[in-house]
Amino acid sequence: DGGITQSPKYLFRKEGQNVTLSCEQNLNHDAMYWYRQDPGQGLRLIYYSQIVNDFQKGDIAEGYSVSREKKESFPLTVTSAQKNPTAFYLCASSPAGTGLGETQYFGPGTRLLVL
Amino acid sequence: GQNIDQPTEMTATEGAIVQINCTYQTSGFNGLFWYQQHAGEAPTFLSYNVLDGLEEKGRFSSFLSRSKGYSYLLLKELQMKDSASYLCAAKSTGFQKLVFGTGTRLLVSP
Question: For residue B108, is pLDDT > 70?
């Protein structure tokens, strides 16, 4: 049963704490992405990775870090430098094709709340 | 610059037809995606257009005019379960990076 999983579903962060959001896919997709969604705003790209051991900053990378050591996994760390981390975080993946083959498929999301 | 515009909210009645418009400006253009997102859930893929014209898929159709930077999503025979946000996303040339609009929240009433 192929898909994208994210964990946890809800995550609470204390001030000054780093937290890591998990994203795993078994779709054999090369590319993976992290987005942040805030009320009334569109999805904003945090980081993306086209291939293992390579990743690029998106539009709002400050305060976040990622790694891509395995094709299946693309964890996102929200560091203490991110001053407004409360949001819905979505992970996505896509094949390396073109056109319709570039369709991104999303995981169920992690809602991060600051205590 | 890159910009996607779509209405914030729309309402419609069960059984009716609704058209959700989207205009876009991107540095290069290589496709337009529509996603459906129910509250608190992940976006799910609905349609993709790269050439001008209408793509039909059951009750949902999507149209693209590249010269006008314009797309719409047409939903027919509306059902209560169609109440959701509909996200328009444009892909610029180069790597698979999408620019998303803020989404249109559709409320279907009985």
Answer: yes
